[in-house]
Amino acid sequence: MTESPTRRPAALREGSRRSQQDLMRAGYALLEEGGADALTVAAVAERAGMAVGSIYRRFGDKEGLLLAIQHAFTENLQAEITQRMSPERLRLLRDPAVAIAEAVGAITDAFHAHEGLLRVFLLLGTRHEAVRVEGSRVSVEGNRNFAEALRHIPVAHRDPAAALDFAFRLVYAAIAHRVTQGEFLESDRPLPWNELRSHLQTAVISYLLATPDGR
Predict the structure, then answer these.
(1) Integer Cα distance of 204 and 200 in angstroms
(2) Is the CB of residue 53 less than 8 Å from the CB of residue 114?
(3) For residue 57, what are the contacts with CB-CB under 8 A and spacing of at least 6?
(4) pTM for this structure?
């Protein structure tokens, strides 16, 4: 019996999608285990159980593979944060302080959950322009999503947009620093992730809801 011509392309597309996912998972694992130096076309092919040639056909070279992995990772990370930090969800939280705490917590928790891969890309971005550009793109998008999610909050500043921008920068800078430099670079006092999260929530709530002169 001849296979239906309408079914074969769908099956091929599904197989290609699974192969792509296998390659991404292999790349993620290698980067987490050994950093950027561990990511080679040969290593990804071996880990994914695929031929080296198939990777070159998909991505062109190692840099194309790296950027594809970064793009997939950052898009998934952003989607994870956005789902929890959606404007519709935060508007249901009647207390502005609770909504701010949830937004800050969403970002902090996602960075904590994925700190291994984030460390690789944040550090690599300091010397690899294309990685930095992609990281900046998704970070700026995250800034916009943060501002949109909290647009209904009564921000106690003359320029609420600027205040929300700074609040995001504050959170991003603190947790990116923690991801890349660890817990004890600037202090020998322990600061576990849960405490860092709580302090950032308190700081951002105070900054956004308190009047600029502190009253």
Answers:
(1) 6
(2) no
(3) none
(4) 0.87
The structure tokens 């990685």 sit at 131
58 pLDDT above the threshold of 50: yes
Signed CA dihedral, 67, 134, 194, 149: sign only:
negative
Expressed in angstroms, the distance from the first to the final Cα of the chain is 81
pLDDT, mean over the chain: 91
Pair 80, 110: CB distance under 8 Å: yes
Q: Is 73 helix (H, G, I), strand (E, B) or coil?
A: helix
- Average pLDDT, stretch 158-174? 98
Contact 20, 58 (CB under 8 A): yes
The Cα diameter of the chain in Å comes to: 81
Indicate if the pLDDT at residue 10 is higher than 90: no
Instruction: Tell whether the torsion through CA atoms of 114, 117, 120 and 123 is positive or negative.
Output: negative
What's the CA angle centered on 71, arms 65 and 77, to 5 degrees?
Answer: 135
Q: Residues 91, 151: contact at Cβ < 8 Å?
A: no
